[in-house]
Amino acid sequence: MQRKILTVHAHPDDEVSRGGATIAHYTAQGVQAVLVTCTDGAAGEILNPDFGALPQGRTLAAQRAEELAASARALGYSTVHSLGFADSGFDGTAGGTDAFVKASTDAAAERLAALIEKEKPQVIVGYGTNHARDPHPDHIRANQVLTRCVELLGERDGSRVPDVFHVAFSRRRHRVLHEACGTAGVPSPYAPGLREPDTSFDDAEINTVISLSETAIERRLSALRCHKTQIAANSGWFALSASELYQAFPYDEYIRVAAPPGGRPCDDLFVASS
């Protein structure tokens, strides 16, 4: 049976920063990956000062869709779906009537459920409930919609609900990568995160850790470079090479929803279907 993973992300570029190397890891093994992006990212800004202005007549939504497609190819996604909502913005006031935060939870969940029923993945990756470090309303909404979607799927046929994982971020990861930046003598983009309280991180909840190859990490960096409006080539997120990142922390971390209590962390998202 063809193994398939479906990921649910709020905006273009989230597919890279939240588990992008995991997708590269699995697609290199022949796993089929499907990306669902909830919003168009149009409420964002051009954060890369080297990008300049958009060409005349081109919208930010169109530009970010092009960047998303290139990023998805770099990671190995075979299919990209849009859930069809507008970016709500950092304060939740953008996007008009089509804003993701204004959508009915049930209506949005039904839309996502239809895609899941069509694609039939064994694994779904989405966002958890800890938004202390990243309280973007669309990220919070993505968790709410996925949670409701899984409930709807269970009501229809509980035996066919995919295994669900939430992307996690540990203080340990931030600390190790911050120290690696210090060793390499480059500015650390992880320093601000380390000033956050322990409750902002997921260390205690992490129960799944995926080991990554250097190649998977390099593909994640390549995908991040596709988002040219969002990140400059000299950004601190590129301060460490794939090799240095691999040597420091070659893992992605997850919380498996409804995992049996106790036991060692799992090392495979397909644990329930293997």
From TrEMBL:
The keyword NADP appears for this protein: no
Taxonomic superkingdom: Bacteria
Any one Gene Ontology molecular-function term assigned to this protein's record: hydrolase activity, acting on carbon-nitrogen (but not peptide) bonds, in linear amides
Q: Which GO terms describe its biological process?
A: glycoside metabolic process
Q: Which UniProt keywords apply?
A: Hydrolase, Zinc
Q: Identify the EC number(s).
A: 3.5.1.115
Q: Which EC class is this protein assigned?
A: hydrolase
Protein name per Swiss-Prot or TrEMBL: CcbE
Organism field: Streptomyces caelestis
Q: What is the lineage of its organism?
A: Bacteria, Bacillati, Actinomycetota, Actinomycetes, Kitasatosporales
